[in-house]
Amino acid sequence: MINTLTQHGDSRGVLFEIYRADHSPAPMVQWNIVRSEAGVMRGVHLHPTHADTLFVIEGTMILGLHDMRPEDPSKRLSTFVTLRGGVPQTVYVPAGVCHGFWFPEPTVYVYGLSGCWSMANELGCRYDAPELGLDWGLSDPILSERDADPTDYATMREAFFAARPDLRGR
User: Fold this and answer.
1) pLDDT value at 15 more than 70
2) Which domain CATH number covers 95?
3) 27: closest CA among 63, 53, 46?
4) Largest Cα–Cα distance of the chain, in whole Å?
5) Are 39 and 141 in contact (CB under 8 A)?
6) Domain range holding 54?
7) Contact between 95 and 50 (Cβ < 8 Å)
8) 29, 62, 79, 85: which could join 58 in a potential S-S bond, CB 3.0 to 4.6 Å?
9) Which residues partner with 79 through β-bridges?
10) pLDDT at 57 over 90
11) What is the side-by-side order of every strand in the sheet holding 60-67?
12) What residues does 16 pair with on adjacent strands?
């Protein structure tokens, strides 16, 4: 879900709200700020139980999404969304939607989580797994150790349904 934010400006500058609990499908309980260098790829990650809200302060984030939720009309669909600093938009990423971030330039972003971060809620697979249907067009991105050697797509999918047995078989 992309939310274009309303700007309130005058000769002094601009104000816009990046988060309001009454505008979000799930309340955010933890907020983080991250700076990524140019050429960094983060993910692909999948959270079985918490959602994220993303906002780019400066720079550019190419956000790749792949829906694992079997009950959703967009199940197994994939897409890219570009977020840019200076463009007041947030993206809400529901639990069960795989997401990866590519940064073609240095970027600062804020993200909120609907549940406190826990490694137990962190699943992932390699960003270029063909099952994701996301052609990043990257040849040698900068990856964390975890993202450079993650599980494969099938293992991530099985771990997701193990964490969410309520969704299995839908």
Assistant:
1) yes
2) 2.60.120.10
3) 53
4) 56
5) yes
6) 2-119+134-163
7) yes
8) 85
9) 65
10) yes
11) 78-84, 60-67, 97-103, 40-46, 123-124
12) none
Q: Is 65 part of any domain?
A: yes
Spatial neighbors of 92 by CB under 8 A, at least 6 apart, are 1, 2, 3, 24, 25, 51, 52, 53
What's the pLDDT at 169? 60
The answer to the question of residue 127 being in a domain is no
Query: Mean pLDDT throughout 110-137?
Result: 94
Q: Evaluate the omega torsion of the peptide bond into residue 29 and state whether it is cis, within 30 degrees of 0.
A: no
Q: Which two tokens stand for residue 14?
A: 């601009």
Burial class (CB in 10 A: 0-12, 13-18, 19+), 99: buried
Q: What is the pLDDT of residue 133?
A: 96
Q: Do the domain assignments include residue 124?
A: no
Residues 40, 52, 45, 119, Cα dihedral to 10° = 110
Residue with tokens 């697979």: 125
Domain for residue 169, yes or no? Answer: no
How many Cα atoms sit within 13 Å of 114 on the Cβ side?
18
Distance, in Å, from the CA atom of 133 to the CA atom of 130, rounded to the nearest integer, reads 6
Pairing, β 30-36 against β 13-15: unpaired
pLDDT at residue 72 in the model: 67
Lookup: tokens for 98? 């795989």
User: How long a stretch of residues is the chain?
Assistant: 170
**Residue 152, Cβ neighbours under 10 Å: how many?**
12
**Cα 110 from Cα 104, distance rounded (Å):** 17
